[in-house]
Amino acid sequence: MTVANATMADIDSWLEIVREVEPLFGPMPDFAATLREKIGEGQALCVRGEDGAVQGAMLLGGTTEHSWIRWLAVRRAARRRGVGRRLVAAAIAHLSAAHTISLDTFREDLAEGRPARRLYERMGFAAGPLVGANDAPRQRYVLARR
């Protein structure tokens, strides 16, 4: 499995993953429109399985100075197979000019987020402050490069 730029042909497969993670991530209105935009910008990366279906997906953003992993999800059936690690490594390489790369993920007290937090920590990201609304805070992680 390799990481590649997403194409318009991948959209339906991405949306399957969106529906799968929506109970954890919350509603994602207009995700398809955002995805189309990010595909056009070269900021949508994915890992496809042997059948061509997207197994894991990621949206990037930000500036050259401070870049972001805006969204990352792995299909339930593809978890614990290195898909997330491949995506994060690709983000680090793709955003090589960034001084920092940040992302917001599940806070520490949410068991569902433990695998994601462990992945980010193994990839060199450090936990920062809680951010967002008081009823749904997220844990910020930052990879400082310079």
Provide a descriptive summary of the structure in words.
This protein has 146 residues and is α+β, with helices and mostly antiparallel strands. The protein has one domain: 3-Layer(aba) Sandwich (Aminopeptidase), CATH 3.40.630.30. Helix content is 32%, strand content 32%. The protein is built from four helices and seven strands. It has helices at 11-25, 31-41, 83-94, 114-122; strands at residues 3-5, 44-48, 54-62, 66-74, 100-106, 126-131, 138-144. It has a seven-stranded mixed β-sheet. The longest helix is centred in the first third of the chain and has 15 residues, at 11-25. The chain starts with a strand and ends with a strand. The model has no long low-confidence stretch (mean pLDDT 91).
